[in-house]
Amino acid sequence: MREPPCPREPDVSRAFGLDPDAELEAHLSACATCRATRDGLEVAIGLARELPIDLPSPARSEEVRASLLAAAESGQAGPIYTRTAHLRWAAVGVTAAAAIAWIVHGHLHDARPRSHAVVYASAGAAFVMASAPPDETLRLRAGTVEVQVDPLGPGQRFRVVVGDGEVEVRGTAFTVSATDDRLAGVSVTHGRVEIRPRDGTPALLGPGQAWRAGSSVPRAIAPAAVVASAPPSAVPPSAPTAVVPPAPLPRRLERRRAHSFAVAETTAAAGGQAGPTLQESLYDDAWDAMRAGDFAKAAARFAGVVDTAPRGPLADEGAFWRGVATARAGRSAQAIELFREMIDQYPASARRGEAATMLGWLLVDNGRADEARPHFRAAGADPSERVRASARRGLEAAER
Amino acid sequence: MKTAKLVPLRRASGAVLAAMSDEALLAACGTGDLPALDALFERFHVPLYRFLARLPTTDDLTRDDLVQATFLEVRRIAKRFRGTSSVKTWLLGVAANLARHQLRGERRRRAHHASYAERLSAVPPRPDEEAERRELLARVGEALAALPHDLQVAFVLCDLEQVPGVEVARALGVPEGTIWRRLHVARKAVRAAVEGNA
Fold first, then answer.
1. Complex confidence, ipTM
2. Which of A387, B13, B18, B134 is deepest in the core (most CB within 10 A)?
3. Is the pLDDT score of A128 beyond 90?
4. Are both A67 and A169 inside the same structural domain?
5. What pLDDT does residue A340 have?
6. pLDDT value of residue A359
7. What pTM, to 2 d.p., does this model score?
8. Domain residues for A297?
9. Residue A286, Cα to own-chain centre: how many angstroms?
10. Cα–Cα distance, B68 to B95 (Å, whole number)
11. Which residues 132-191 on chain B approach chain A with CB closer than 8 angstroms?
């Protein structure tokens, strides 16, 4: 009786790794040729499993996670991580551009809720955009994030949550640091920030003020107000925070407990000034006018922001928003010149790319596509994917 | 499996998310729930990185991009998940498809291949007992890198990640026979490299 023929090599291959096939196993045990085939495959696969695998470090995974969530939250279609990977201060959650564009033209119109914040993360910062508007939460585990939050409307919140407390803002620019999931420090550029340490007394920081965990720095000249709000979990999203008039910090805050916080002036606070500067007041007024839809007034106020301190911390912001307000007021020719001026005057501004995009769109709408192209190209290098995407669309529009 | 009934609370807490099945988490993710996406990342980013790292045509930054793009795509198409494979395999299938597009350009693929081969061959041979094994590994790596993307994916998923072929076929949306054919060709090439017949 003839022995059954050897199975084809693909069949031997297919059998490998599956449940043992009695008939095939019997053949393999008797047929040296087929056994060699199977053994050869086994060796090859075994070696392939030994090939080195580069897995990311936990810190890198966290960065990708944060970038992913920021992209998802802002509705981005593609990754933004690698484009920012080599920047010391990498914009990872830039979505303010969408709001700006919505105000000006609606070119970036999208029905999904947009973040009100621009987040700049220091290298190694581990954070997650944990929830989307209207109750935005940035979960910070370690490192430092600088956050710029546009003025929020009723029912809108923006919080930075750390393991042992949270920081809530309403239209401001500030920096938060954490170490080992504990709040390490907060400093405020402008606006107001409320700090709610889990085991400490809440406090309100004004422009130029800073918190430091366990700091030995003396209390601020004009200390932060003590906030009499309920714990964070008890505050409904739309409930205004109850703030008592500014008062000295309780003495117990001066004790250097592990979870205590001390208030100190940042170097940005000119002359120990704790209240809003003239520039900040004008800026706030301008935003009030913007929210009220009085764009001409807003443009004038933003002009004041720039004129008051052309090299001040809010000057480039003021110049940018002046252009936006002017455009919204229907004066596109003037807005074009204002954006040009802003780009020239503040080449290092974080708003430069957005301004270039705005300028490009205004030029396109005015039939000046040739002039628009260089601005869109310039915005193509912006850290924000949203801005870059708008610039790409602008270039396409300029080509038509 | 009907996933529509598994949609959880719109804003599930950490404890709830941790207790959710993969399928429920995916369904929640499909509703736009960011915490669910975060939890999905937490659960699957390591296997995803490992899978992509085994594809020799990806480098660190490309992997980061692909991981992020995969989760964004998963979020977008979560409703298409039919439960015919595990969520993990389905997710790896999404990544494989994205990787194919990412590496579509032949020139790019060759560049990756060249850099990978260079990396492997850059290890100087040592006059000890490990030298031969290292050389073998280098040859296996080169053979794998030289394979077309689809063959690489079949080999990595079936033989290295040890996902059942039928599940791989479903996740990639190809007939099971196609997977077996690809796997056989890939195995043959790798074996030939090991045996010095490449």
1. 0.79
2. A387
3. no
4. yes
5. 92
6. 92
7. 0.46
8. 278-399
9. 24
10. 10
11. 136-137, 140-141, 144, 155, 158-160, 162, 180-181, 183-184, 187-188, 190-191
